[in-house]
Specification:
Blueprint: H1 2-27, H2 38-48, E1 55-58, E2 66-68, E3 73-76, H3 78-82, H4 86-104, H5 107-135, H6 139-176, H7 185-224
Parallel strand pairs: 1-3
Antiparallel strand pairs: 2-3
Helix pairs in contact: 1-7, 2-4, 4-6, 4-7, 5-6, 6-7
Length: 225
């Protein structure tokens, strides 16, 4: 059973990552009918939503695209900043979706920002407490580690509506502003859906790992009784 479990938690993220890379590779070779660069797509969306204070910058690294709420910056990886592909347009629009969320004070995004320090602490401290609790057979430490891990899992779960909402906003923007052709909308959605799978996979693995630790904790207490 443990071999099956570990196979699942390894294979799910790998499958999601492969899906993203393959989908991106496919549609990064297909230019949009508008031939707009990802940087231009991002600027058009931001301007259309009155976000003139948000800048668009070229980032570093493959698929390193993100929105930085602290500096109000959409950072696009080189291939998406300069590229005029369907993939570049979709990714740029998605990151602008986060900027729009930030500008509107989207509740789940604000909640996720509040969870960042708690989630970081939980990720760093949980496994230390869990390992000591398991090997020293101290159920109290194991429980404390589980609580810390639960905070990190909550962050993963809250990330899901944030990402799906950003993708929905992205599609509405590229359609309403005609940044992709009518026949290209389906392909753009494929790119966004593939990217969303990575967050779903990460959340699923985190929940499974948390449940496994809860079962270990309950088993430890049962043996002590």
């Amino acid at each position: 059973m443990y071999l099956i479990y570990f196979a699942i938690i390894v294979l799910i993220p790998l499958w999601a990552q492969m899906r993203v890379k393959n989908t991106f590779a496919k549609f990064s070779r297909v230019p949009t009918s508008t031939y707009r660069r990802g940087a231009d797509v991002a600027r058009d969306i931001l301007n259309a939503n009155g976000l003139y204070n948000v800048t668009v910058e070229e980032g570093r690294g493959f698929l390193s695209d993100h929105y930085d709420p602290r500096s109000k910056t959409v950072r696009l990886s080189p291939e998406n900043y300069h590229g005029n592909s369907i993939a570049a347009a979709a990714v740029a629009a998605h990151e602008c979706g986060h900027a729009i969320q930030d500008g509107e004070g989207y509740a789940f995004l604000r909640f996720r920002h509040m969870l960042v320090p708690v989630a970081n602490l939980g990720s760093n401290a949980s496994w230390i407490l869990i390992m000591i609790g398991v090997f020293a057979h101290i159920s109290g430490l194991l429980l404390l580690g589980i609580i810390f891990m639960a905070a990190a899992v909550l962050f993963q779960l809250v990330t899901l509506p944030v990402e799906f909402n950003a993708s929905n906003r992205a599609m509405k923007q590229v359609v309403s502003l005609r940044l992709v052709g009518d026949h290209e909308q389906r392909e753009a959605r494929k790119v966004l859906n593939a990217a969303a799978l990575t967050y779903v996979a990460a959340a699923a693995v985190a929940v499974l790992e948390l449940l496994r630790l809860v079962f270990i904790f309950t088993g430890m207490n049962r043996n002590d009784d």
